[in-house]
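Shapes recur. One chain:

:::
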Amino acid sequence: NYMVASLALNTAQASGDQAKLSTALDALIVAGEAAGKLTQPQKAQYYWYQGQFAYVAKNYPKAETALSQAIANGSTEVEATALLADAQQRNGKPGEALATLQKVIDAKAAAGQTVPADWFARGADIASRGKLVPEFVRITTAWLAAYPEGQSWHDTLFIYRQMTASSGETDLDLLRLARVVKALPLSAQSNYVDYALAVYLRYPAEAVDVLNEGVANGKLVPAQNQNTREILALSKPKIGPDKASIPSTIAAATGAKGTFKSAMTAGDLVYGYNDYAKAAEMYKLALTKPGANADQANFRLGLALVQAGDKPGAQAAFSAVKAAPYAALAGYGKVWAK
């Protein structure tokens, strides 16, 4: 009965034997629940201990049940929710684990309390392992808003890149965003090369610029990197004629026969020369053209405006992005433009 179980627990506690203590605690909970003897604070405490014991013993289903009970009974243990989420993930329930974390993150935020960075990091890890892209985007966007550190930006963007296998123009724009938020210097040297490979045939100045940054950051050593050497050798001589083509490219975009594509090309060209105000003007023009890829144009407009110092304008441009594959990137851009 309950009295016997209480005494057994005291004896087990005195012995300091973890296995005995765990068994005695289980017996006390069963007897106490059956006799209706446990107060709510006792339940919160006992289930919390039971959950910890089960977690340490790698009995994750038992840990999940016990920790859920502890929380339901008002446990004030800060770690209870994080531990529950971890147990759920180890039980092969990444979606539930994320919902657990998200709930407590939302509650803390609503109460105006600081959410521990570790909770966001744990959530991002669970989402990436579970290949849950929308959940990953949601929790990392909140993480970056709360903790806008360089490493968080790096981890978010490059894990997202891996999860979505981003390619083509979207991948280029992800790398552009990574450069703007200063995450590139924290990343692998291959990302600089990927960026340069994506632009060097069209926008040599942007390619040379990004590779020079990689060299300056100690990420690229041209003597040891054939791609870097070759792209620089091919692109540097093209910069003179490329720069000379800016007026005619802008004239083609703004003229009567200007199209979405010609306006975007003009915007990208001057973006590569860091003329962000002019680039923004061209992207805005592109948005007025028939057949516009509005999400792409708005995303690039946001990148240009944030670098031109117009944060409210950048926020508005990023907010206008509606669908995949640009919506997540625009959400991250909005956080940076705050």
Notes: Residues 242-336 form a domain with the Serine Threonine Protein Phosphatase 5, Tetratricopeptide repeat fold (CATH 1.25.40.10). The chain has three domains: 2-186, 188-241, 242-336.
